[in-house]
């Protein structure tokens, strides 16, 4: 079974499912129009046929195109792409972060990226399970070797702000960053960021991103918080391969800026994206619950909050934070 979507610019104006392409082109547009199909090409996002001023996208039953190294790299500038020693693509891994740590264990300490169609043991902050179905989502990690003296406090915030900006350039608006690492749309989780580091001759760091393109209902039911996906937010979902390339480029540029200036370049944007700004929150550490008011972040990327008329800071990202209302 194949689906045809006939687009007039961004608006879907026709949809049909069929098993015989020629028969249903004739049914949809009549034989004369079908004969005037000017060309067909297969891209990394969809199969496209041009019919006068319409674009016909033929999607496979899985509704997503597999990861493509060529298309990912084509979305990156050569000057940035060359800074990665390699980009690894997998059908399935335990975790894209773990793949890059294993690469380090093999003696490879240069910058690299890893993407996979699915993860069998994907994880988020505090070691929570990151549900990773093979449904066309983005599971992406980058290994970056910082100088040993680098202070990476606040790195997840810099990456989060840059990720929001990259998605905003694709027309995905009204996103916010919930300290320290969740990308939200109206309090629904769209993406998460995981930063891990190990000390050696250099500060080896892996930054993982999980971005929901499409979440099957069965997966949504397993997640114990409100979620959303690009499929739900977008009239035209971005091409996953091209967006992956843009995100990788954005991450590399962010890491280079952060290496020089820390969080300074990103602080001016924080207030635009702060999901917790002046919100009543609950800090959860095991059985301990603390009610507070969030007051933004400081220069080190620590959360500032008010409790019992006193200002406190929080740097421990293992403490769970919930909206109080």
Structure notes:
There is one protein chain. This protein is of the alpha+beta class and about 325 residues long. It is about 25% helix and about 35% strand. It has helices at about 20-30, 30-35, 70-75, 80, 95-105, 155-170, 215-220, 230-235, 240-260, 265-275; strands at about 1-10, 10-20, 40, 45-50, 55-60, 85-95, 110-120, 140-145, 175-180, 180-185, 190-200, 200-210, 280-285, 290-295, 305, 310-315, 320-325. The strands form 3 sheets. A 7-stranded mixed β-sheet has the order 6-7-8-12-11-10-9, with helices on both faces. Strands 2-1-5-4-3 form a 5-stranded antiparallel β-sheet, with helices on one face. The chain has a 5-stranded antiparallel β-sheet with strand order 16-15-14-13-17, with no helix packed on it. Helix 5 links the parallel strand 6 (about 85-95) and strand 7. Helix 6 (about 155-170) packs antiparallel against helix 9 (about 240-260). The longest helix is centred in the C-terminal third of the chain and has 22 residues, at about 240-260. The radius of gyration is 22 Å and the shape is globular.
């Amino acid at each position: 079974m194949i689906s045809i979507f006939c687009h007039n610019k961004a608006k879907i104006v026709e949809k049909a499912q069929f098993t015989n392409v020629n028969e249903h082109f004739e049914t949809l547009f009549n034989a004369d129009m079908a004969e005037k199909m000017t060309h067909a090409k297969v891209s990394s996002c969809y199969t496209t046929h041009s019919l006068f001023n319409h674009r016909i996208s033929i999607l496979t039953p899985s509704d997503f195109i597999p990861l493509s190294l060529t298309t990912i790299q084509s979305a990156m500038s050569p000057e940035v792409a060359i800074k990665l020693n390699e980009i690894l693509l997998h059908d399935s891994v335990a975790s894209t972060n773990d793949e890059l740590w294993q690469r380090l264990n093999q003696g490879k300490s240069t910058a690299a990226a890893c993407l996979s169609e699915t993860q069998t043991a994907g994880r988020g902050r505090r070691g929570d399970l990151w549900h990773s179905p093979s449904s066309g989502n983005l599971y992406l990690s980058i290994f970056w070797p910082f100088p040993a003296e680098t202070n990476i406090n606040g790195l997840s915030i810099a990456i989060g702000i840059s990720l929001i900006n990259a998605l905003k350039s694709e027309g995905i608006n009204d996103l916010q960053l919930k300290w320290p690492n969740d990308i939200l749309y109206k309090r629904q989780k769209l993406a998460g960021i995981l930063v891990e580091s190990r000390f050696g001759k250099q500060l080896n760091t892996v930054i993982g991103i999980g971005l929901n393109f499409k979440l099957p209902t069965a997966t949504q039911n397993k997640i114990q918080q409100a979620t959303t996906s690009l499929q739900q937010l977008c009239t035209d979902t971005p091409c996953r391969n091209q967006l992956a390339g843009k995100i990788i480029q954005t991450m590399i540029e962010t890491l280079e800026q952060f290496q020089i200036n820390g969080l300074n370049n990103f602080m001016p944007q924080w207030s635009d994206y702060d999901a917790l700004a002046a919100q009543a929150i609950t800090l959860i550490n095991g059985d301990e619950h603390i009610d507070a008011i969030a007051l933004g972040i400081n220069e080190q990327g620590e959360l500032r909050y008010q409790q019992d008329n006193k200002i406190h800071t929080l740097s421990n990202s293992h403490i769970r934070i919930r909206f109080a209302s």
